[in-house]
Amino acid sequence: MNDSDEGAGRPAPDGPAAPSRRKDARRNKAALLDAAAAAFVVSGVDAPVRDIAARAGVGVGTIYRHFPTRADLIVAVYRHQVDACAEAGPALLADSASPHTALGRWIDQFVDFLATKHGLAAALHSDDAGFDTLHAYFIDRLVPVCAQLLEAAAVAGEIRPDIDAYELMRGVGNLCIGADSDPRYDPRRLVGLLVAGLRRP
């Protein structure tokens, strides 16, 4: 194949098909991150790359092309899950019967995120510099969403108005500690009682 043939029949990088290609690439990367997250639930953050590739239906090389190191993959999965949780808040508020219902459903998703990141907490406390900003990202993305849900429920008269979003999230997080190592403990039940207790008498 000569140089004149190599680009024949294909649109220029910024041609009409470029936005579609970028959208496909984002969708493929999201699917890969979902597969990695699912593998982490089963095997922790040390899940074999070949298992993640098999879940995603791609070759191992594709994962390394996107994420050259395991730390890169862990960071990307964490940020992807935080983003999904953040984006769920406004969607639940729009789709739920009441703001309190939306808050409860969002807290359930938050608990799922906390309870299924096997090994991630230990990784985040390692010496890898790539993890340094993740806690701040978590706070910056999720606290405002929780605050929005709390405010909507308070304005609707469903809950008391003096509940702090960070304080609530910290309490929920504390209820999730150790859940992955004790099959007899389901934090969702206690968190559900906590959310129910936010209601006005």
TrEMBL record:
Positions of the UniProt region annotated as Disordered: 1-26
Top-level taxon: Bacteria
PROSITE patterns named in the record: HTH_TETR_2
Keyword set includes Cell cycle: no
DNA-binding residue intervals: 48-67
Keywords: DNA-binding, Transcription, Transcription regulation
Protein name as catalogued: HTH tetR-type domain-containing protein
Species of origin: Streptomyces venetus
